[in-house]
Amino acid sequence: MFPDPLPQEQRFLDALAQDDWPAADQSLTPGAVGLAPEELIELFESQLMSRHLDLQARRLQARGEAFYTIGSAGHEGNAAIALALRASDPAFLHYRDAAFFLQRARRVPGQTPLWDMLLSFAASAEDPISGGRHKVLGSKTLCIPPQTSTIASHLPKAMGAAYSLGLWRRLGAGGEWPGDSVVLCSFGDASFNHSTAQGAFNAAAWSAFQAVPMPLIWLCEDNGIGISTPTPKGWVAASMAARPGIHYLACDGLDLLDTWRVAREAVRIARSRRQPVFLHMRCVRLFGHAGSDAQQAYLSASRIEADEARDPLLIGAGLLRRHAGLDREAVAALYHRVRERVARLAEEAVCRPRLEQASQVMASIVPPPRPGRAQPWRGEISTTHDTLARRLNQALDRLMTRYPHLVLAGEDIGRKGGVYGVTQKLQARFGGHRVIDTLLDEQSILGLGIGMGQSGLVPILEIQFLAYLHNAEDQLRGEAATLSFFSSGQYTNPMVVRIAGLGYQKGFGGHFHNDNAIAVLRDIPGLLVACPSNGADAVGLLQEAVRLADEEQRVVVMIEPIALYHRRDLLEEGDGGWCFPDPGAEYRLAPGELGRWGDGSELAIVTYGNGVHLSRQAAARLQAEGIALRIIDLRWLTAIDHDAVFAMVGDCARVLIVDECRRTGSVSEELMTALVERGLPGERLSRLTAEDSFIPLARAATVTLPSVEGIVEHARALLAR
Predict the structure, then answer these.
(1) Rounded to whole angstroms, what are the CA distances from 592 to 179, 280, 598, 624, 633?
(2) CA dihedral over 479, 481, 486, 488, signed as positive or negative
(3) Distance from CA of residue 26 to its chain's centroid?
(4) What digits encode the pLDDT tens for the residues 305-322?
(5) I want to staple 410 with a disulfide (CB 3.0 to 4.6 A). Which of 317, 339, 462, 481 is the partner?
(6) Rounded Cα gap, residues 118 and 349, in angstroms
């Protein structure tokens, strides 16, 4: 049965039946702006389809058959922006851009956007982008990566994608998109104020100010309100109109002709001059924010009536009557044809299968593999023993040679070679376009990497200190690690993030430079976290991390213990016991692959990072007391092979876990649980962890952390049970 009109729709139909439709700019005609009358009709039909999807979502939600009703009503003018772009231009879309999506689908044969979007509304497993995991706008064919709802989190990666286009040109190769593409990134006026958005604007302008190619259109869809909070009138324009490095353009998003005219100019500037453009599109928000939001609670009746009177569909109807020869009856007939089509498809979509099992939901957390692109290594391998920092530097040099599409980026990594010298001389060898000195903004660094990864590059990003990650961690949690999940593996952003961290650093301390908080990384589905304890393992882990990114499209974080970067000795000064040879170009340590030292069965110490060095020192004292032990180095702090851990320690009388991170939420909790679940009695187990504390300066810097003496004491107490 054909559904009755919703109240919002009835008010629109009443207005449509009248002859006093709001007028657009009378000076603009399709001919004057280069738009054919049939294209104007097509744009209006895309707007109608978007509106009826919004209405249908509300009907379905009331029946319990749709689950996410944030809509596009009032923003449908973005259809004209879709027409101004190519279908191959990557578009990172705002959640109110259904009309853009629908219009772009017209440019590619064989698309069924209405059906696809209704499957998404119904959370059907047949939804071609997310497989029923979320209601998102996205399509691999249409070059629209899906976006979730983290406010403004997609802006940094759009900047990174735009940057990658120029980088691919310098590399003399092609990425995921044509080299002359323009990147579009849309958002609302409320998102405009988010620190993530401001950081992305700044990074794009900072780059463009230095003549770095940045073919990017920021599309701000300004409806004047963020949920219930008004945007100060004139604020967006005043903030961006004179911004260095960015061209500011504005259009009336209610008027298709004006929007098309200005959008074409924005595309011309971005494509021909390779510079960023801020396109300020004024529009209205109809129907409230989303779901059950009732804007009558915070907007006056007169304001709501005024917004409905400025409905872009009413203005579009007037344009059709004036320039395309469609009278009121023809416009109404078109409206009802689209309405009927959407309603019919909706009834079919809600009957399609949905996700039912955890395995189905989780199937796309890990993306599908792709062919590797590593070139054979024909260079020499160092035979000397050296430190962790030096081994990493040599491995990075080798990886840059073997992977021509690998790019390093981070603060001070080029000219200076990084805070700890790990990237020394690499910029001089491979150029500033492959070893990039970034601005001091971790959100922009991670967003740059995500965008480059989506374009087909493999970025290795450096975060100077672990504590600096925390103001940007949503780029990993909300963006990098979710892309495969929300696109059913169609989109990926492979990347490696190197982070200097953990405690025990001398002479340059405090909790900003000695941070042992890694729980935030370990609980992100699909994210891999590695932690080397020595130079040889650092090579194996880094080379495997790059392989994982290149071939398996994974996001890998490597926590590098600062205190071990330049450590040379183990037991006494000058013994060189913590210097290791280069294990070679093909040496890789796969996720879950454990390290082992010693064969004793009285005691097993399970640890990682600095804990391995400390445990080796403690082992010398314990062995002198006649205690036979072994040390297990986890190497990987996620994807731990607990069966392998149990196999390595199960024959030992006692097991001590040494965890340099905070007791609460630490990897030791996971290890204890897994060992007990596999049958190891609790009385044979103990753990030594850091305190739940920040790390202070001076001599107190290590008092909250495990120590050699603490390991020895815990081992003795455990063995004495």
Answers:
(1) 39, 50, 19, 32, 10
(2) positive
(3) 44
(4) 888 889 999 999 999 999
(5) 462
(6) 6
Instruction: Say if CB 262 and CB 279 are below 8 A apart.
Output: yes
- Residue 285: Cβ within 10 Å count: 24
Structure tokens at 444: 């922009």
DSSP, residue by residue, 520-553? HHHTSTT-EEE--SSHHHHHHHHHHHHHHHHHH-
CA distances from 318 to 73, 259, 333, 407, 630 (A): 18, 15, 15, 52, 81
Where do runs of H (alpha helix) occur along 625-705?
Answer: 642-649, 667-677
- For residue 624, what are its two tokens? 């002198």
Burial class (CB in 10 A: 0-12, 13-18, 19+), 500: buried
pLDDT tier at 353 (50, 70, 90 boundaries)?
very high
Cβ neighbour number for residue 387 with a 10 Å cutoff:
21
Of 52, 134, 511, 513, the catalytic one is 513
513 as an active site residue: the answer is: yes
Residues facing residue 92 across a β-bridge: 185
Please give, one letter per residue, the 3-state secondary structure of 364-388.
CCCCCCCCCCCCCCCCCCCCCCECH
Q: Using alpha carbons only, what angle is made at residue 309 by residues 305 and 312, rounded to the nearest 5 degrees?
A: 130
Label the pairing between strands 603-607 and 555-561.
unpaired
- What is the tens place of the pLDDT at every residue in 396-412? 999 999 999 999 999 99
CA angle 264, 34, 240 (to 5 degrees): 25
As a whole-number percent, the residues of the chain with pLDDT over 90 amount to: 86
Kindly state the tokens that stand for 253.
């998003």
489 burial via Cβ count (<10 Å: 0-12, 13-18, 19+): middle
Angle of the 535-552 helix axis to the 388-402 helix axis, nearest 10: 30
Rounded CA separation 328/342 (Å): 21
Distances (CA, A) of 61 to 55, 58, 134: 10, 5, 14
Q: Which residues, including other chains, have CB under 8 Å from residue 43's CB and lie 6 or more apart?
A: 79, 80, 83, 103, 256, 260, 316
Residue 543 contacts residue 574 (beta carbons within 8 Å): no
Beta strands 225-226 and 229-230, pairing class? antiparallel
Tell me the Ramachandran region of residue 334: left when phi exceeds 0, alpha when psi lies from -120 to 50, beta otherwise: alpha
Rg (Cα) of the chain, in Å, rounded? 29
CA atoms within 13 A on the CB side of 57: 27
* Edge-to-edge strand ranges of the sheet holding 247-252: 91-92, 183-188, 216-222, 277-282, 247-252
462-473 residues labelled b (16+ CB within 10 A) or e (exposed): bbbbbbbbeebb
Q: Indicate whether this model's pTM tops 0.70.
A: yes
CB 538 within 8 A of CB 503: no
pLDDT tens, residue by residue, 472-496? 999 999 999 999 999 999 999 999 9
